[in-house]
Amino acid sequence: MVVQIGYFPGCSLQGSSREFEQSLKALAEKLGVSLEEIPDWNCCGASAAHNLNNELGLALPARILIQAERAGLEEILVPCAACFSRLASTVHELNKHASVRRHLADVLGAEYGGKTRPINILEFLGRFFPEGQGPEVIQPLACKVACYYGCLLVRPTEIVGRDRPEDPQEMDRLMSRVGAEPIDWAFKVDCCGAGLTIPRPDLVARLSGAILEDATSRGAQIIVLACPMCHTNLDMRRADIERFTGKRYTIPAIYVTQAIAYALGVPAGELGLKRHLVPINLEKLRAGDAGPASAPATSQ
Amino acid sequence: MSSNPSDPLADQVFQMTGQSVAKCYQCGKCSAGCPLSSEMDLPPNQILRLIQYGDPGLDAKAVECYSIWLCLSCHTCSARCPQGIDLPPVMDVLRQRSARTGRVHRQARKIVAFHRSFLKSIRSHGRLFEVGTIASYKFRTGKFFQDLFLAPRILLKGKLGLLPHSVCDRKQVRRVFESTDE
Asked: Which of A15, A243, B86, B109 suits a disulfide with B78, CB 3.0-4.6 Å?
């Protein structure tokens, strides 16, 4: 039986992080979930909107929620952690303040009715890939992984509502289930530098460099994450990080959807892994003949 | 949603975000956990202290500082605040007053230029056009050579689309920008 759920891809999943969408769709098919894209969705406004204009920062996500409601979608999967945060914060504000809701209704020509709820990738996986059920693990990930949650899968706590905001375990448990060994490390909820990646790559290099250093020094072979912004900083900014730290890091970063879809039998070639700048060969990792120590220096 | 920009900042913060800065008793946990506090001219707890007074001169100091633009809205401070103050929305109010009154700290101009380039793309297309946003940022800042060596690799990997995706109802998106004064 196929279950249907609303889907908000956001700009990154159809732009620089297309491999996140590609692997999510392959995984959803394995899990028997059909993703119903919100018609004519717009950008959530990201950091730029709420930094410069809080009204715009609420109006852009509100339009997305209204589009979803019009299409009869009650739950919408928002895989990008940053888009999820904007949508969930907007729902929180609109439910709390009737005056804000009415004001935005004037701006948008329609009012949010409170029927649509965004869910993030961890909630989605918890629900549709529950423990002890679902498809069998065919290609166990047999390697050490550092589960990187970043900021917006765990914070703000009153909106995301996780029980262990400083040491979340959901992704770690998922990784154990697909045969990987999650490591205990100190940077799983630290910030990568986010949207400063273009105006201040030097600061991103400092913050993301600390994440790579801790994961590597504790023996992780892959970083697993669920945010396009974090992926950009940990993968695409590798040259800046290496210039800043004076060290070379070969540890790849992959999306949680790529990791699970692979374990459930989706061929590595269908997961968009080739789009990453830091090369990753999951077959080799499984065979156990490549680790961060023995891998050749690969980033530029 | 709107409030008078001549009001004391603390009042404007309360009206726009429901956050009461008076609750802060200066324990400093926000600054201890902030990933960028070492780069800041004023640590987050001191920004709250400045606006607690309701004094126009001290408000101006907060609005003109560099820190408000370095804040990543990572919410580490809010998660650890014993008084339950959610600082990033407070920073949003300060940033908006700073940008709207033309008092952005000199060192933060590149950061604001990037935000503006991003919003310009959303205004035109309804969705982010990454190449267009980067081009617009380069024109605003003169940083023509930044990431030039990265560009061909990213394009070959198919990571950047050369053409924008657009929302069908672009007029409505434009109206949203106009009615929110952006």
From this structure: B86
